Amino acid sequence: MRSVIAPQGDVAATDSASRTLVLGIDGAQGIVQCGPNAEAVLGRPPADLIGRPAAELVDDGSKSDLEGLLEAIIAGQERRAVLSVRRGDGSTTESVVTAQPLVGGGAPGSPAGLLFVRVALPVSERYQDPALMRRALMDDPLARFGASLDLDQVAKGLVDVIVPHFCTTASVLILESLVAADEVHSESGSAVLRRIAVTSDDGNPAWTATFPVGEVLIYPEGTPYREVLDTARPVHLPHVDVQLAGDIADKWRRGPVGLLLTGVSMVLLPLIARDTLLGFIACTRVPGFRKFDAYDVEIGMEFASRAAIVIDNARLFSRERATALTLQRSLLPNRLSAPSSVEVRHRYLPGSKLVEVGGDWYESIALPGARVALIVGDVAGHGVRAAVTMGRLRTALHTLANLELPPADALHIMHELMIELGEQEPHFATCVYAVYDATTGTIEVASAGHLPPLLVAPGGLNDFLEVPPAPPLGVSGGATIESREFKVEDGSLFVIYTDGLVENRGTDIDDGLARLQGVFGPDSTSLPMEDLAKATLDGVYADHHRDDIAVLIARLSRLPEDRCATWTLPADPAAVRRARGLVRSKLDEWELGDLSYTTELLASELVTNALRYAPGGPIELRLLLERTVVCEVLDRSAALPRLRHATDDEENGRGLLVVSQLAHRWGTRRTAAGKVVWCEQIVPGVDPDPSEPVPTWPGENHHRE
């Protein structure tokens, strides 16, 4: 049976730049069915095609490709090719031909499959059907690019839809304040605009060269571009003649504009959302195509009004993201500190543009006695609230570190703080807190719901430390927070990180942890820290759903033995004089004799204080040469001394006052055996502040989104 068949909507082209003919092909490769639009597509009536071999559809150069398509139908496969199809007047036209088999086809007289022949419309016929234009602009395309919240992607999707369905060339311009994620003001003609997308399909590269993407400009008065900004209404120019095109080019002082706009039809569509002008879309049809009419303007404005909503949503998202990112960066540390024997590097990357900013943070805080606190945390959630909570936690934890609380005690206080914050708004966070002592080569680690730290020994062995598990900060119930102490080989690497580094949507977290172990292989302890930091982030930039990433890498080395001296003194008043002699001898050995008098006085006051308030046990005196000279006295009493001012008739109570006046800094901390009272003296010619600005790395600004 031979008949005329109608094109099927799911395969026929839905755009206004092409037209599709559907042909039924039988097992003998003959045409047995033909769509009614054969005359419009190929200039041949259906009766002229039915009964003819399919090979007569194409010229000699395309016959072999057509045979491949027909063989695919017999084999039950779908295939596509570009062929030169013959027209009724003897000419040929390039066509996209798709072969599609039919299930159960091939019976005598019935088609075994279908050929869909898609040809480009003649120039004179494009944009003739307004219903086709409306459907092409309003259906799936808007939903497709409207799903993105990235401004650049939205603009690119917008111009790719409007060209070729509505015009041959289009560009999107929006207020520069919008691109900068600022609030949009009621600016009009003199507003600064940025062109964020341009495309054309007429094969002329001059469009993108004359109207470049990323250009920031103010349109001159007396041009149609200024008019659409002043009136916030569409500007319709059915035909731009030579004089008008030259006038626009002269006022703009851009000569190529006159050549491009001569003879075109133009419409400028304002983008208005919530009664605010965001920018406009410039649409042109080059000579030879149907000129814009009033109905085209109506269709274009309907599209522009919907596109403006999408752009406004992207603007609001960009502004909130920029606010959160700025807030978070202001709350992150701008200085890292550590003992001279410890080298620290960090990396921080905000989440990708498809993910809101999170609450990751990091810390490296030098502590008295050649110790350092290393911290990484992650507040659950994203956005401004997560950044604010991160700032609160970081400030509190920084204070607790300076109070020299043990890691487990500090995290317990943080947990109580998160419980209190959760009464106003639910919050929780994970955190790992470690304190490394460069004099003993030990590190004490506590974790609250965080991923395990990685310790890399100089021999090449690397493993995740088994820290006692505890629930995240702010989560009631569960195990208490405990710490564990580990012995660290000299020169080992200690790596703490947030979950964004090791997990994403496409891989299991165990694979991410294995990748991290692979980065810190057998030779990693001998590599430069910058190279290690760079390798840690390899491969994460391409993940468009990447969460925030914070990484802290520390090379842990012990303080040289000749920079540390420890003595045990008896609980006897004579120990004070012995302490002075020991301090004097060691300072002479370090060639710091100028500090002898003051340091001897400080040591004697600290030892006297220990003898008076912690009787009954030996006293330990320790002298450290780091960036400062540190004098420490350890006794067996857990009671911490406090500074007070003695009255004129009191004989005691002035020791710590003397220490506070003579020392650069002083303080106390509890230990498992009692307490330590310490003070620091400035070494001449050495900066006592070990803090250094957070180092930057090549390409850092590229990743500051």
Task: Describe the protein.
- Helix content is 31%, strand content 26%.
- The chain has 19 helices and 29 strands.
- It is α+β, with helices and mostly antiparallel strands.
- The strands form 6 sheets. The protein has a 6-stranded mixed beta sheet with strand order 1-3-2-6-5-4. Strands 9-8-7-12-11-10 form a 6-stranded antiparallel beta sheet, sandwiched between helices. It has a 5-stranded antiparallel beta sheet with strand order 14-23-22-19-20, covered by helices on one side.
Oligomer: single chain
Give the C-alpha Rg: 38 Å
Average pLDDT rating: 83
- The unreliable regions are 6-16, 697-705
**Roughly how many Å apart are the termini?**
64 Å
| Strand percent estimate | 25-35%
Secondary-structure content class: alpha+beta
Helix content: 25-40%
Topology, number of strands? 29
Report on the biggest sheet: 6 strands, mixed
Number of helices: 19
In spatial order, strands of the major sheet run 1-3-2-6-5-4
Molecular shape: elongated
